[in-house]
Specification:
It is a single chain. By secondary structure, the chain is mainly α. It has two domains: about 170 residues, no CATH class; about 30 residues, no CATH class. Helix content is about 70%, strand content about 5%. It is built from six helices and two strands. It has a two-stranded antiparallel ribbon. It is elongated. It starts with a helix and ends with a strand.
Length: about 200
């Protein structure tokens, strides 16, 4: 009976850890489970937002008047969007694309940027094409990066547990036994391996 209970306990724990790993991989910036990471993630998100707004203002809002020289500055926003796609995931990448689109529409309607023409309709059509291509590319890459994170986390989980039962495999058992033996020798207390107590002399 004790072995059955232990087996069920490991099975439930394995499934819970797999679900937790899937959620963590799908949402790379999880502030609830990683409070130490939260400060660096907030700092990185703030730097991304500032970079995106500055790039949008330089490209589309006429902060620097590059219109006479015809520089292809519209491509400066692509590295910032790739940063959002790689580091944060699809949700944040779509938000970054929305911020860029808002900045670009405002500047284009004011007559600034590489897509400004005499007609507002022509300007917005060119801008819509650019934002559409950049947005689809960014979202495709963000989705691919998120799927890769999930696959890596599942591979890491499968390396330490059996996929059918959720129990730890032999390598995991050896790691746990070694750490428990070190703790036991350090503290002089018994340690638990599986469902039985082992006393060390």
């Amino acid at each position: 009976m004790v072995q059955l209970w232990s087996h069920l306990e490991h099975l439930v724990a394995g499934r819970r850890s797999r679900r937790r790993a899937d959620r963590a991989a799908a949402d790379p910036v999880d502030f609830a489970t990683a409070p130490a990471l939260a400060a660096s993630a907030i700092f990185e998100a703030t730097a991304l937002l500032i970079s995106l707004v500055v790039a949008g203002m330089v490209i589309f809002d006429g902060v620097f008047n590059f219109a006479a020289r015809s520089y292809p500055l519209e491509y400066l926003c692509i590295p910032v969007l790739l940063w959002a796609a790689y580091r944060f995931g699809p949700r944040e990448a779509s938000a970054a694309t929305l911020v860029l689109a808002g900045t670009a529409i405002w500047g284009t309607l004011k007559g600034f940027g590489p897509f400004a023409r005499d007609s507002h309709n022509e300007s917005l059509l060119l801008l819509q094409t650019f934002i559409g291509v950049v947005g689809v590319t960014t979202m495709g890459l963000a989705t691919a990066f998120a799927e890769r994170r999930v696959a890596e986390e599942q591979t890491r989980l499968l390396a330490a547990s059996d996929p059918l039962t959720g129990l730890g495999n032999y390598r995991k058992l050896i790691d746990v036994l070694e750490s428990e033996m070190r703790r036991s020798s350090r503290t002089g207390r018994s340690f638990r391996a599986g469902c039985c107590w082992i006393w060390t002399a």
